[in-house]
Amino acid sequence: MKIEEFERLDLRIGRIKDAARIEGSKKLIKLEVDIGNGDEHEHGRNRQLVAGIADEYKPEELIGKLVPVLVNLEPKKLMGVESQGMLLAVSVDGKPVLLHPDKDVPPGSRVC
Fold first, then answer.
1. Whole-angstrom distance, CA of residue 104 vs CA of residue 53
2. Longest C-alpha distance within the chain, in Å?
3. d(CA 93, CA 4)
4. Which residue, among 44, 64, 54, has the nearest Cα to 89 in the 3D structure?
5. Confidence of residue 19 (pLDDT cuts 50, 70, 90)
């Protein structure tokens, strides 16, 4: 991969503002994530994301967490709910583990 390909990805730190299980799904959680000022994004400051992390995380324990988000991804519907980006995590033994900055950073901070 060339650096130019990586630079096309708009990765930002977001702060989870709200989270709820998606009815009828065992793994999906709907998240409202603050991704910064939104000047460059049609969806504005908050994004709705759908993440398959409900086996490992309860919605209430996610609120306030800082997470990396791929924000320039085409929206996609999962179980009828639109996801406007992708939360980044790692897989350990097939289970999702969220990534976090090691210091408090403002929502919208670019991952570089």
1. 23
2. 41
3. 32
4. 54
5. very high
